Queue: 4 jobs
Job 1
Amino acid sequence: MEGLLQQQKYDEAIQCMDNRLALIDQLAQLAKECQLQRQVVAEFAAKLSIQEEKLQALTISYHNIVFKKLVQVGKGNKAGQAYNLNSKEF
């Protein structure tokens, strides 16, 4: 995902993030259904949580870069308002 963000392939990065969330959801479901897998899933979930924090920080960084570029090309006011409105989760 970091590579996609560096290459400014934001749609692909969003799809990757959505796929990660779906995977995490499936792992949670597996842990509920299979007692034997709970420990393995819990360990994996802990690793994913750490990765998720790093990815959120990286995403915020790219969010700021994009906004600054919009301001530089003179479209920051309108586009920036729309961008901020659509990215409240960050």
Note: The CA atoms of residues 5 and 13 lie 6 Å apart.
Job 2
Amino acid sequence: MMMYTIRYVHRNNINYVASNIDRHLIILKSIDSEFMMGHQISYDGKKLFNLTLNEDTDAVIEFEGNEKKVYEYLLSI
């Protein structure tokens, strides 16, 4: 299980960019869960858990990649 930190909230307030200590980036999409910059989340490859709020989330991973690819993906949404 990897721990990530929310680093960026997209202007649509549905997509969030999170990074881990290895600088691996993920873009997650949330429907009803609340995230803020700085929130700690864990991701085991299937499920996201908000460690800051200590609750399960409905978020799903939309994209994984390096900084350049994540930036390109965000521009496309």
Note: The helical segments are 67-76.
Job 3
Amino acid sequence: MSSMPHRLFRLLTVVWVGSLLTIGYAVAPVLFTSLDRMTAGAVAAQLFRIEGMIGVVCGVLLLALCNVLIRRGGDAYRRLRWLIAGMLVCVLFGYFALQPFMNALRIAAQEAGTDVGHSVYASRFGMLHGVSSVFYLIESLLGIVLAWKLPAGANLAAEQGARRVAGRTAG
């Protein structure tokens, strides 16, 4: 089995999980301790929007690569496919279901001349933010498990696949 799909799989995993952890657990907290809440919220929203797009692109590509690698005998990628699917569900729900509502509330508050935290939308925004945070946490935990369970190497995955095929033909 060519090592290129395996290497691309690792690269996409590192990009997705690395950006997910960096933006959510390093950059966003620093923004809120360094800037006023309104500015920090606006910058964080932009960063999470970018993270959402990274997640969608990497997730779709990783699922496609999983299928290619499984067809080439990489059985280790079968389990990973479910982790990626779970991460993709989290990012799609957060990006396409929750974020539009949160942004609409933020814009409505700004048009009323205040930030969302001091507006009539504060409780609704807080609830959506809490749900979004739970999905982000689940996506992050799945990402850590994905990175942890990555096959040791392309050659190892190929050897495991060859053993599996040999076992089927011998039995």
Note: The chain has a mean pLDDT of 90.
Job 4
Amino acid sequence: MIAAWVSLHRAAGCSLRAKKAALLENGENPTAVLDFLRQKGIRSNESEDKLVMEQVKKLNGWIMTFKDEDYPELLKEIADPPLCLFGVGDRSALSRPTIAFVGTRRPTQYGFNACSKLIRELSPAHPVIVSGMASGIDTRAHFSALENKLQTVAVMGTGLNVVYPRENRELFQSIVKNGAVVSECDPDTKPEPFRFPVRNRIISGISTGVVIVEAREKSGTLITMRLALEQNHEVFAVPGRLFDRASVSTNRAIRNGEAKLITCANDILEELIAFDILGKSDTVVPESAPGLLGYLDETARSIDELEALSGLSRNQILMEITMLEMDSRIEKNGANQFRKRV
């Protein structure tokens, strides 16, 4: 069945939107859709399809199909999801709560520091950090995740056999050991300008929220922002200095109401908790979390109440609520109120 999925994924002459629609009409049966496309004169090259599968296998990789149980639910909901993702590393990383960090390839020191600070503050909640492994903010995001012992996922605009930029070869290997590297492209696909904006829909598509750290005028990062908005995913932006060109687009996005201003991890967590976007994961709740459970019962309590009762900082409460929710030990009841799950 994987062969049929690869053939449908690679078949030229039919858009992903049309392929998705045809799949939904045919019970997500790729063979039925392939038969229909062949009647229209649309087909893939079976020998090339086989080569692609062999190349992925040689990398000790995997092929995730649209119908697989672990295919990311958020990604499945977008208009044009990839029918196959070729990957190496831990494929289960794509099924956990994810936050994307994106930004300019020419960041300032302020941008580097802001990216590192936010990911460090998020680390107690154990999100998977998603980015595109490009130079600049992408690279900083992946390194910061690894430094804080978080899993990270790189969504490439090239094939798995083509590390771009070349200087990120060691980073590529580190991500494979502590997360996953994925691509919708054939393994030998080289970097071409048009592929990166197309790739961005996957970065935003698999992420519960997208954080824009720095973005210059006409930055490609804005494509990711607009895609996330179209996908109804949360968008956050780090405010920049008034005269800094690296922050022109982030400041404008905040001003226009396209992105929510953030200065710390709390701003991200509060928003994701408020809109029930956190989802479930295999996260193990640390020993400190049961202490918060002592202040929760069948009566719903607000974060302010928990802060007053427990004496814990607001930051610590948000982190622990995040992990307890992901572990299904508490549930939300009303506007930012929580109670112990019975």
Note: The chain has a mean pLDDT of 90.
